[in-house]
Amino acid sequence: MKTFTMLSLAAALICFTLLGQALSQSCNCKNLVNAKCEPDGTGQNCQCSIQLGTDLKPVDCNKLVPKCWLMKRESIPTKAGKRQKPASALVDNDGLYNPDCEDNGTFKARQCNNTDTCWCVNSAGVRRTDKGDKNWKCSELVRTYWVMVEMKRNDTDKVADGAIKGALESLITSRYNLPAKYIDAIEVEDNFIYIDLKQNSSSKQANDVDIADVGYYMEKDIKGDPIISSDVPFQLTVNGKNFGVKEPVIYYIDEKPHEISMKHLTPGVIAVIVVVIVAIIAGIVVLVLTRRKRGRYEKAEMKEMNEMQKELNS
Fold first, then answer.
1. Do 100 and 118 meet the contact criterion of CB atoms below 8 Å apart?
2. pLDDT digits (tens, 9 = 90+) for 110-126
3. CB-based contacts of 261: which residues, under 8 Å, 6+ apart?
4. pLDDT digits over 13-43, tens only?
5. Can you tell me the distance from the alpha carbon of 62 to that of 177, in angstroms, rounded to the nearest whole number?
6. What would the 3-class secondary structure string for the chain be?
7. CA separation (Å) from 176 to 65, 139, 244, 248?
8. pLDDT, tens digit, 9 for 90 and up, residues 90-148
9. Among the listed residues 170, 97, 187, 108, the one whose alpha carbon sits nearest the alpha carbon of residue 142
10. Dist CA 109 CA 124 (whole Å)
11. Which letter, b or e, does each residue of 110-135 get, where b requires 16 or more Cβ atoms within 10 Å of its Cβ?
12. Taking the model in full, what pTM does it have?
């Protein structure tokens, strides 16, 4: 009986181990490549997290991961000391930076990027004010209510605009879980495609995906640097065929006007402006001097003609 009991326990242990290994292998996060996923305490579910330096933030793999956390992960140096520079680093006003995030993954209104220079950002993490010192104040996180995605099409075949619009709406709602009510418009103009995503403070529900996160995920997908697992590849299918798109540009429009002025331009930008102004002034001076010389020449020529006429008459 003891032998039978021991064999039963051993078999149960082996089964439990194999089950745990199988669950561990099946643990993955479709909305985050290289997420850290492990079976939870019950051994029946997976718990995934995103590594932010030395911190681990739990993520819900049924939702898009907040953009602030994604940017933070990309900007933090790897163990080898090399910084990962994604293709999207220069698309925003100031490119990639290491943002300060709230506990829920939203951007903090004031960003300083571990320096003595600070500025204010919108809910998409894009700078919306001039830059200042550590005393720079940001009273609120202004919401980005409109995200416009611009892209070009690879496919030159004749495809009905309606088919392209339908395919894009289906992709956005299924891949990024964005409710269709936030897709305000999809327009096709020659080789360009424009998508307007609108979501103001009053319309967004607590569990709704944020349009700023959708814009970030879509930009990564189109540029071939997806955040979503490769098991769920990015594919825009139009009339049963893969429809290629490229060169995405994301525009952010806030609920309040931005506060960027000419007062805090960088030296490089100021130098360019000065050169342009000097060139314009120099052109005007040359034009004035040329006209004056021409006027003097014409007057002298008329005077000589008059004198010659007088001599002939005499």
1. no
2. 999 778 899 999 999 99
3. 130
4. 444 443 344 444 568 888 888 788 888 776 6
5. 9
6. CHHHHHHHHHHHHHHHHHHHHHHHHHCCCCCCCCCEEEECCCCCCEEEEEEECCEEEEECCCCCCCHHHHHHHHHCCCCCCCCCCCCCCCCCCCCCCCCCECCCCCECCEECCCCCCEEEEECCCCECECCECCCCCCCCCECEEEEEEEEEECCCCCCCHHHHHHHHHHHHHHHCCCCHHHEEEEEEECCEEEEEEECCCCCCCCCCCCHHHHHHHHHHHHCCCCCCCCCCCCCCEECCEECCEEEEEEEEEECCCCECCCCCCCHHHHHHHHHHHHHHHHHHHHHHHHHHHHHHHHHHHHHHHHHHHHHHHC
7. 10, 31, 18, 17
8. 246 567 789 999 999 999 999 997 788 999 999 999 999 999 999 999 999 999 999 99
9. 108
10. 10
11. bbbeeeeebbbbbbbbbbbbbbbeee
12. 0.69
Phi, psi for residue 103 in degrees, rounded to 5: -60, -25
Residue 40 in tokens: 């939870």
The encoded tokens of residue 224 equal 């071939």
Residue type, 276: V
Nearest to 152 by CA among 260, 243, 281, 44: 243
Q: Which two tokens stand for residue 23?
A: 């669950």
